[in-house]
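Case 299 in the screening queue. Each case pairs one protein sequence with one candidate compound; here the compound is FE2/S2 (inorganic) cluster. For every case the pipeline is the same: read the inputs, emit a complex structure as tokens, and attach any notable structural observations.

Predict complex for case 299.
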Amino acid sequence: MIVALEAASRPAPWTQVRGRVALQRDYGAGHLWLDLEVPRGFRDPVPGQFVQLLLVAPAPVLLPRPMSVASVRTVGGRSVLGFLYGPVGAGTLALSQLTRGDTVDVLGPLGRGFPLEAPGTPVLVAGGRGVAPLLFAADGLRRLGRRSEFLFGARSRAQLVGLDDARRRLERMGGRLHLATDDGSRGLEGTVLDLLDKVGPRLAPPLVIHACGPHGMLKAVAEWAMARSIPAFLAMESQMACGTGVCRGCPMPRSEKARALYVRTRGDAPSLFGNAEYAMCCTEGPVFEARDLDWERVE
Ligand SMILES: Cc1cc2nc3c(=O)[nH]c(=O)nc-3n(C[C@H](O)[C@H](O)[C@H](O)COP(=O)(O)OP(=O)(O)OC[C@H]3O[C@@H](n4cnc5c(N)ncnc54)[C@H](O)[C@@H]3O)c2cc1C
Ligand code: FES
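Case 299 output:
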């Protein structure tokens, strides 16, 4: 399975282009939505892939910032990439100041996306802003004629970012939305893990999970899935510089099984995918299968 998926989801070749802001708007819960129009020839990212956004100089930060693609649509023959992001530091704050017509450099598409062709009833598990790339995945599944069960959790109703949008889009796609909040202000009182416990057994087996959210949540989802022998694919994050496997700045600890596979397929020589001990999040990920990571060492 691991080898088959590896072959099926080889990293797409990337290009660097100048994108133009088509829209920047408040998305609620302290987040913004950004639409960037990219020139013709930029390969459309698939759900789970990301791009590196580099502010045009002079800028307050030197390095590009990684951002998951939340939507791709075609307007007037050009692709428009959508992003849901939180302004948390100098780079994303500067990004939030851009207005329609401003430019930003876009490197991508990068990394490996969700293997949407993986068999089973698709269960999408989102925490916080992880909702956006997973709605993109739900759309990809719909195109494959598959309906998703969409589990969305946050601390409270106010932090269910883009909830109305999620509801509308899933309704259109024929997907089913299940909610959980820690404080019970919307949906089940509890975490998305409690939601998995409740909803999972009611769904037609076998299940396949695709998840995006904070690492703590992803670790819990990975352990839940592995304990039940359910395949789970998790979109991980890391601090990144190059986004292309060169700087070695985004290591993710491999599980024993994945270490053995690396040695068997690539020898012990380092590659753009990392080395036997660590996978680079930007090239081998950001979407990893649960059993390929050593969750005790994931930060
Ligand atoms: C593959 C990938 C996809 C991502 N997709 C999104 C997305 O769709 N929407 C979004 O809002 N953010 C996303 N991020 C995180 C985003 O890249 C960071 O928030 C951003 O780089 C912060 O840059 P900054 O200059 O604003 O903040 P900095 O000044 O660099 O950092 C501000 C704070 O954010 C923390 N931080 C920086 N990078 C990350 C990270 N990767 N994960 C968690 N904390 C971080 C820093 O430790 C620091 O505490 C993604 C990251 C990766 C690796
Ligand atoms: S960001 Fe440079 S190797 Fe991953």
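Case 299 observations:
- The chain has two domains: 2-110, 121-238+273-292.
- DSSP finds seven helices and 16 strands in the chain.
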